[in-house]
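Protocol step 4 of 6: structure prediction from sequence.
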Amino acid sequence: MATIYYDRDADPNLIRNKKVAIIGYGSQGHAHALNLHDSGVDVMVGLREGSRSWAKAAADGLNVDTVANAAAWADTIVLLAPDTAQPQIYHDHIVAHLAPGNTLMFAHGFNIRFETIEPPEGMDVSMVAPKAPGHRVREVYVDGGGTPCLLAVHADASGMAKANALAYAWAIGGARAGVLETTFAEETETDLFGEQAVLCGGVSALVQAGFETLVEAGYQPEVAYFECLHELKLIVDLMYQGGLNYMRYSVSDTAEHGDYTAGDRLITEEARYEMSQILNEIQNGEYARKWIAENENGRTWFEAERRRRQDHLIERVGADLRGMMPFVKPVTIRPGE
């Protein structure tokens, strides 16, 4: 049975007595920094000189300095830059300022799990990983709620690493919803697998393949968009609220029957085998090595694939349709962005 902690289990004074440097001000960085600040924590944002985020963080009322200066000032350093950028930031600007008794924190276990960052002995190394994009971490906090988080401890030199991490989770709102204890390896491997096999890779491929099947059969692209992409949110919202059972309870009997008859035809033994292969490649480090190499070699394939996918017909049709529905607050990402 999973161990889950809540607000009542945390000691807010532990984090309020720390000086916390948030390295990075992207999706997670801005949410953590602002939530910490609003929870009464002493926060500084560390950014590279010339960063476009510098003025934004300052305008949001936060103290901002270089990564090195923020790391030297803090006793708790939270690395929230992109995974593949973290090792160089750590080696160039942070490691020289680490001291016994400091805490190094992460929101994803990638660099500890794959040993691209190896912190010195004598310090705590922990993780608080919100299970939501950063903008939702912030929005839900402001609304008085919280985002569930995973908590893990890699090194506990002080004997307080878990208690301090739980206090941090309290400060960003995670303990309002629940903080589940895990390990760096479990968080990293399940997170990568979920992104690739289900949440991003699996869902994106299924949506696009369904759209293409209908369009190639002669149906209007706009109708195909509504059936294969737009309505997906309605189904996921039902799952989010009450699981697969509630979704099946809420849809028509015909839709439920189609769920039972078609699902296993799509997720075949071959598909399950590929899922197991994806998981194996994550566990043995093959995926990490390839992704790190892609970044070291200029991300040529990644950027070309990004542009190609952004120009797919489903994106062009969707942009037009969403433009007619201002209530969805449409956002359009153009090829190359």
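Step 5 (inspection) to follow. Residues 190 and 241 are 22 Å apart (CA to CA).
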